[in-house]
């Protein structure tokens, strides 16, 4: 089985696949009488039609090494994942190769970081690595086919250093 | 100074002011091969124009009793607050009374809950009660006047039982 080593998430490495939702070195603006730093517009929802909604995902924590069987993508909208706990999680993405996923990449977020997966970008399912596995998800709410799955003939193993 | 006693947040009590973003008793659907419960479309962004964006707010924790000097509202869009830690926070809202805020109400969320303040609804600024005070905020990104503040002639004191 091919092994993928998860790397720390950086905005640069993740840019082809989406956006890291993390504090900038300094807030863009201080609000609320100086008691709150606003890190402004870190990601914008990219929704084709329908509504932009907030759902909660309550996912079972996984452990490494992780067996990657499949990736999926959402042609009609971006999908952001915001952890509701101070924990990092595993993010798996893959470039598109003529309608199928190419070689996957894996990243580890740090506590206090979320991500937005770009519209129509191959990615693994939500994989928390610690409890509680509770995330807010900002994505498209609407009818129509917004899920494409790809199951790998040969699964991958994801590890970390 | 008039005292307001914060009550536990419930969807019913909060309904005139917005939406509680919390897990339902059962998920709407199990996804990801049964490993993730989706609590679907708990809130929908209500944005007049411009984009729907995700920002991070890094707010200083407050303590009770809390002195409430002002409330604000955003005429052009809803604003959702998602805690990125397993902590509750203080939520203050007020009905509108001919263009000015009426008597404020205060609520305490539980860990694992977020809220969406409805468009043009009077509310207090973000008031975490414990560190780290880090929240994802889903609101309107765009130009134009989207902030109205009201400073009270006589501040309120917010306590909890």
TrEMBL record, chains A, B:
<dbReference type="InterPro" id="IPR011051">
    <property type="entry name" value="RmlC_Cupin_sf"/>
</dbReference>
<dbReference type="InterPro" id="IPR024060">
    <property type="entry name" value="Ureidoglycolate_lyase_dom_sf"/>
</dbReference>
<dbReference type="Pfam" id="PF04115">
    <property type="entry name" value="Ureidogly_lyase"/>
</dbReference>
<protein>
    <submittedName>
        <fullName>Ureidoglycolate hydrolase</fullName>
        <ecNumber>3.5.1.116</ecNumber>
    </submittedName>
</protein>
<dbReference type="GO" id="GO:0000256">
    <property type="term" value="P:allantoin catabolic process"/>
</dbReference>
<dbReference type="InterPro" id="IPR007247">
    <property type="entry name" value="Ureidogly_lyase"/>
</dbReference>
<dbReference type="InterPro" id="IPR047233">
    <property type="entry name" value="UAH_cupin"/>
</dbReference>
<keyword id="KW-0456">Lyase</keyword>
<dbReference type="GO" id="GO:0006144">
    <property type="term" value="P:purine nucleobase metabolic process"/>
</dbReference>
<keyword id="KW-0659">Purine metabolism</keyword>
<comment type="subunit">
    <text>Homodimer.</text>
</comment>
<keyword id="KW-0378">Hydrolase</keyword>
<dbReference type="GO" id="GO:0004848">
    <property type="term" value="F:ureidoglycolate hydrolase activity"/>
</dbReference>
<dbReference type="GO" id="GO:0050385">
    <property type="term" value="F:ureidoglycolate lyase activity"/>
</dbReference>
């Amino acid at each position: 089985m091919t092994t993928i080593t998860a790397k720390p998430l950086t905005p640069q490495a993740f840019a082809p696949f989406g956006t890291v939702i993390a504090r900038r070195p300094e807030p863009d603006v201080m609000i609320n009488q100086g008691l709150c730093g606003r890190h402004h517009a870190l990601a914008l929802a990219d929704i084709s039609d329908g509504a932009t909604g907030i759902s909660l995902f309550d996912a079972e924590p996984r452990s490494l090494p992780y067996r990657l069987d499949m990736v999926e993508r959402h042609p009609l909208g971006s999908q952001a994942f915001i952890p509701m706990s101070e924990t990092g999680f595993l993010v798996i993405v893959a470039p598109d190769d003529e309608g199928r996923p190419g070689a996957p990449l894996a990243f580890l977020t740090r506590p206090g970081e979320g991500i937005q997966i770009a519209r129509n970008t191959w990615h693994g399912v939500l994989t928390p690595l610690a409890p509680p596995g509770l995330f807010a998800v900002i994505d498209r709410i609407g009818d129509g086919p917004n899920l494409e799955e790809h199951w790998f003939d040969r699964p991958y193993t994801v590890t970390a250093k």
